[in-house]
Amino acid sequence: MSEPRTVTDPADPRLADYTGLTDVELRRRREPAEGLFIAEGEKVIRRALAAGFRMRSMLLTPKWLGVMEDVIAEADAPVHVVEPALAEQVTGYHVHRGALASMERQPLPEAAELLADARRVAVLEGLIDHTNLGAIFRSAAALGMDAVLLSPDCADPLYRRAVKTSMGAVFSVPYARLDPWPSALDAVRAAGFRLLALTPSGAEDLAVAAPHLLPKAALMLGAEGDGLTRRALDAADQRVRIPMAHGVDSLNVGAAAAVAFYAVNSA
Amino acid sequence: MSEPRTVTDPADPRLADYTGLTDVELRRRREPAEGLFIAEGEKVIRRALAAGFRMRSMLLTPKWLGVMEDVIAEADAPVHVVEPALAEQVTGYHVHRGALASMERQPLPEAAELLADARRVAVLEGLIDHTNLGAIFRSAAALGMDAVLLSPDCADPLYRRAVKTSMGAVFSVPYARLDPWPSALDAVRAAGFRLLALTPSGAEDLAVAAPHLLPKAALMLGAEGDGLTRRALDAADQRVRIPMAHGVDSLNVGAAAAVAFYAVNSA
């Protein structure tokens, strides 16, 4: 049980984990270096704890003390209570869901470790948009993907906005980095996976490729706009397309991912 | 051919169509009342024209004059040239894609008209988020839906952000309102459609329901958060679910729509 304590000074060092949350560049450097990430909102905080992440501290506006009572009772980390105006001053934005937690990162597993137990994995290249990344994790979790593998230039799934958009799914689907890129894809193939690149110019229809019949399938998706790079396409075993109508040239990557994750898991 | 003219006064009445674009409430009232909508960016403007919408006027920053040369040559509507700072002053935001067009709305078709020629329709209830709505139109177009039917409380597909997120797909997939709601769903059924409600609590798996075998299918989707209302669920012929893994309780409505649109159209 942690005793909530009111903090009134925005420069109080106990609030350091929460400063400048809207400065993406700053947070992108700081969070991995300091081994923390920010969980925002009651649901996401509960899901992070349920997934086994250790809490460093919590920042609550007074009206959230009641809602989070049981979390506080279980916590051994400090709980800082701040007025909404102070929360905004420290974080840089109006914290609608007046509950933030600073959580401790865990070491990422190796890709090989995840591949040993998986049958369906998503491989993402160059996804730098946190909203798209979070949405893809949410779909990956919901639609039964076993793991997500990220190219080195993908954004951080534990960045606040990605965590929030994923509704905490970044805690339930294990993920790892594939480095060096794209040669580390060879290890995916060596683990028994067939590498299917999703691309509007793919030679074969997704339905014809029948990915649900593959014992082990890796679905490769590229960033919004450019799609998979030439090097990634060359490293794939097969290029498949989702058929398009009405003269549309591409799907949003989040929609393409949902379709592909569904297709690879449906009987 | 329209002769581009420089405008320097933010209060110039020729710029009236473009004032206060970030004020959602204001624009939501004004645009339908004045019979206009705003297309933003080169691609979207071209797609609106290709779809047969008439241009009322165009607002360009100087560096877009070259890119839009052919559009200007074809236009009989006035072309206003403004500096980026003035564009920001008038619209209320920094216009990244320095090209805006005010387009004339066309009367919406009746649902019955669309149903006469369609085999696959999406029925959306309570979608008030313009980004979700635009994303669903983009998927509906790409994945081969013939029409979209909207409950009376759905947002306006021609609102700027919806148009942009849809990448102009709101111009290529015809849509209509279903009013009164939900009793107008009877007309959908009378037109030969089976009404499938997508809901996490659905009794049957989407794959088992095999919607692609139906001669005519209407896929009902509810708003993010609450999903379809009890009344809408009661009006459906069948409730189907997309199976969920990892303890996830729901998909984002855009992801669910993409999966359902794919499933109803894949062989």
Distance between the termini of chain A: 48 Å
Under CATH, the homologous superfamily of the largest domain in chain A reads: SPOUT methyltransferase, trefoil knot domain
Q: How many domain modules of chain A?
A: 2
Query: Proportion of β residues of chain A?
Result: 15-25%
Question: Structural class of the secondary elements of chain A?
Answer: alpha/beta
Query: Would you count the extended β strands of chain A for me?
Result: 12
How many helical stretches of chain A?
A: 12
Could you explain the architecture of this structure?
Chains A, B: Residues 38-109 form the RNA 2-O ribose methyltransferase substrate binding domain. Chains A, B: InterPro entries: Alpha/beta_knot_MTases, MRM3-like_sub_bind, Ribosomal_eL30-like_sf, rRNA_Methyltransferase, SpoU_MeTrfase, SpoU_subst-bd, tRNA_m1G_MTases_N. Chains A, B: This is RNA methyltransferase. Chains A, B: One of its GO terms (biological process) is RNA processing. With 267 residues, chain A is an alpha/beta fold. Chain A has two domains: 5-104, Ribosomal protein L30/S12 (60s Ribosomal Protein L30, Chain: A, 2-Layer Sandwich); 111-265, Alpha/beta knot (3-Layer(aba) Sandwich). Helices cover 35% and strands 19% of the residues of chain A. Chain A has helices spanning 24-34, 42-50, 69-74, 84-91, 111-117, 130-142, 160-165, 169-172, 185-190, 206-209, 230-235, 253-265; strands spanning 5-6, 36-40, 55-60, 79-81, 99-104, 120-125, 147-150, 175-177, 194-198, 204-205, 217-222, 238-241. In chain A, the strands form two sheets. A seven-stranded parallel beta sheet of chain A has the order 8-7-6-11-9-12-10, with helices on both faces. In chain A, strand 3 (55-60), helix 3 and strand 4 form a beta-alpha-beta unit. The relative contact order of chain A is 0.14. The model of chain A has no long low-confidence stretch (mean pLDDT 95). The interface between A and B is medium-sized, with 34 and 35 residues.
